[in-house]
Fold these 2 entries.
Entry 1:
Amino acid sequence: MKYGLFLYLLLFLSIPAFCQVDTTQQIILNRKNSSAQQKKPYVILISADGFRYDYAKKYNTTHLLELANPGVKADYMLPSYPSLTFPNHYAIVTGLTPAHSGLVGNNFYDPARKETYISKNHRNVTDSTWYGGTPLWVLAERQQMLSAANYWVGSD
């Protein structure tokens, strides 16, 4: 009896592991930048949400300072309205204001779609029809440059 209960419990608890959807990036081996792109400098874009412009120096964030020193860093950012994470991060990589990209908030109702976009809803975040414009990583790939985006709005 206990053995049967144990097997049933083990099976029940393992169900979520077998129901996962594969959302990992598919890697294509031996991809390279085109020869023209290999001569250009790399761009690493880091955004630390809520990280004030002076925190790196104030709190001596050694590795961030080392990344910024030989390259370029923004002295400030003039946020778009509304000054929320999703609209502003998407504006950074598309150059579009929220009114033009369609991403007008972290959570909002779209009367044309009769749907609500919720930033914590995986279905919304991975549905590209919510995002207008072309993000930087898509433009790079179109120019035969390798690109990667990790945990950035619109990259899922």
Entry 2:
Amino acid sequence: MAERSAGNDPGRRQRIVDATLRVIAEYGVADTTHRRIAAEANVPLGSVTYYFASLEALMTTAFLQLAAQASDGFAARLAQAINRRDARAAVIDIIADSVWAEPRTLLLSYELYAFAARHPPVATVMQQWMNSSRTALGRFFDPLTARALDALVEGIGIHNSIDTEPLDRDAIRTIVERITGVD
């Protein structure tokens, strides 16, 4: 394949970032390579190193994109709530129906947390993401309850991904009601 200039392929950088997430989901961070990403993005290997100085920089960009998308989805769903009951329903929806219920996203979140633990710039973004989630929840719940719900959102998703008897929507509703109290 002939190398095209960035001007002739303005979407190339984004395709590389998107491909990085697909490769990480399939192989994990430890087995993610420039070659696998280039093949997945259908770009020359040199394009990957042209846009990103290192594999770490590329994975950081990809994980920041994942975090931003998840945070935006979370905030958008909670923004629809006008009262505590609506917020409770939003949390249940986020846990039971959202992108976090998808196996691929859960795999990426495992990889993201491990990567963030070893890369302070990503850990900082993760803290901002948690703060953003807690702020959105804080419109309706006290700070401790908001923090518990924030942890619950991902915690149930993680457990459900490997549990032989995952929690269904009714069980999730019961747990959320116990944490938040019922109006």
